[in-house]
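Troubleshooting: if your tokenizer reports a length mismatch, compare your output against this known-good record of 200 residues.
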Amino acid sequence: MPATEEPRARVVLIGGASGSGKSRIAELSGLPILRLDDYYREGDDPALPRLESGEADWDHPGSWHRDRALAALEELARTGRTTAPVYDISRSASVGAHEVTLGGATRFVAEGIFVAEVVAEAERRGILADALCVRRSRWVTMGLRFARDLREHRKSPAFLVKRGMLLARREPAIVARLTDAGCRPVRVRAAARMLASSRA
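Known-good structure output:
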């Protein structure tokens, strides 16, 4: 059952395909940020889903600890702080932890590629303020994602090209899943304006 006590803050969930601009929107908001992609499984976790090629499928919801992410969302909303992992995508491993605090804010942002998996439960627990799905041309997203991943040395260039084409094909389904889960489709600039207004 949802908690009866009012939370200290409620979360604005931001979903979208990898590279769609979620992290940038979150940073521009000026609100506390919980990065849900930090709850990825370790690269050697036997429960990690695999592609037919045998490589990890990092875009499958099973590659992520949904229960841990939900627990962190609720803890931050109700107590004002949580300890979150720091995940290094290039190593496919958690490399530390850090504290996320509200600092008196009544809204915070949580962004990641698996937002569709937590919208309904966040609403049921009484901690959801809004849920957004960032939309832009999938080809623009693919180019921005590739440039970012190369710059951050996330994986080998060959893997990034393969993953980029796979995600471009999957992107309409990713957006549909988010909207079906209750996320409102928005463009990058519109989302940034909404969050700035929320902070004010």
